Amino acid sequence: MARPTGKPLTAAGSNQWVRLAFYLLLLLPLLLRREPTPANELKYLQIADEALRDGHFWCLYLDGAVYADKPPLYLWIVMLFRQLLGFHCLPLLELFSLLPAFGILVLLNRWCGNRLTLRWQIGAELALLTTAYFLGGALVLRMDMLMVFFITLAMWIFWRIDQGDPRPGLRWAFPLAVFAAIFSKGPVGMLFPLGGCLAWLLSEGRLRDFGRAWGWRCWLTLVLLCGFWWGMAWLEGGRDYIDNLLVHQTVGRAVDAFHHKRPIYWYLLVIWYAMGPWSLLTIPVGAWAAAKGRLKAPDLALARYFLLISATFFVVMSLMSSKLQIYLLPMFGFVNYACYMILASTHQEDHSTVVLTVTYAVAGTMLAACVVAGFFFPSIF
Fold first, then answer.
1. Could you write out the DSSP letters of every residue in 232-292?
2. What is the dihedral of CA 269, 272, 273, 279, to 10 degrees?
């Protein structure tokens, strides 16, 4: 395969930083004024305080009880700023959800830059930013968005490798991105890249190419990094903590969940509002393109890749016992950008104008509502 050409930073790319600054300005009232949520955010602050007080950093506890639900990376960030400032600064910590969200927008725009004109990039960007659970995940203290950034990065690196980029550094960067996703939120960070890559190669009849990204470098890096993490957790918390981390929190959640147990069809119902309001556009467009064979077109290979890895993830997550709307977050960016690539490829000017006008109007209204909510409803979350 020929080595793909990347799109250099242009004036359009530079303008994205202006847009991101504008989005930050619009969301700033919410970041500065809202109250922390007791169910998650206050809990994370307490876990960080206990770790700093008791001197344990690989094993996490809440009120003295084992808390192996999440890996430590995000909570290390909370601990770091608690140490630096002497107190918890919620708006600053919120940036570690918002900045990864902005990073996803930047990465997807660069990735799709050769396939979307600037106005279509902005449309896809606005649609993703104002997707219900994407926007919500960007504004609260959760590790989900950090994981999704690393998953998106891993899938971009895999695409580069699969398209023939020969640089050996990519084969080391890929497992590092996968591990960062795992270390941010847990097994889903491995599940999405592994399932997505397998599904793509199987669909292309090239399963023999699996080792190009998932070769010895990848598995060696993952084994060493995970082994170091689990070894340090074992030294701090002993066998019981490791059993909780590797068995109870993985197999238990997947097979017979002790939290958030839902029926297998649950995601078919909630996807409409979790990805709302854009699910009313993107899901029908994706289904139409697949039914009509449009995804077989060479210029929509990337859209086909995005939709296939998203569909694979959706099916796998539906088979899991534990379900929450936010668990689908890794697929939102891929679905949105795939459908805007499909729409942009129709070459119907009147149709394009309507779609983009609606996108700008709806997204602008939603961002304006965030400004109002920030000033008048500080406890909205």
1. HHHHHHHHHHHHIIIIITTHHHHHS-SSSB--TTHHHHHHHHHSTTTHHHHHHHHHHHHHT
2. 170
Report the alpha-carbon distance of residue 163 to residue 264 in Å, rounded: 35
Q: Look at phi and psi of residue 90 and say left if phi exceeds 0, alpha if psi is from -120 to 50, else beta.
A: alpha
Question: Over its length of 381 residues, how does the chain's per-residue pLDDT go in tens digits?
Answer: 333 334 433 444 558 899 999 999 999 998 888 778 777 889 999 999 999 999 999 999 999 888 988 899 999 999 999 999 999 998 899 999 999 999 999 999 999 989 999 999 999 999 999 999 999 999 988 899 999 999 999 999 999 999 999 999 999 999 999 999 999 999 999 999 999 999 999 999 999 999 999 999 999 999 999 999 999 999 999 988 888 888 876 765 555 544 567 899 999 999 999 999 999 999 999 999 999 999 999 999 999 999 999 999 999 999 998 899 999 999 999 999 999 999 999 866 567 788 999 999 999 999 999 999 888 765 544
3-state secondary structure (DSSP) of residue 360? helix
Cβ proximity of 158 and 199 under 8 Å = no
Strand, coil or helix: 1 = coil
Cα distances (angstroms) measured from residue 139 to each of 82, 94, 198: 19, 6, 33
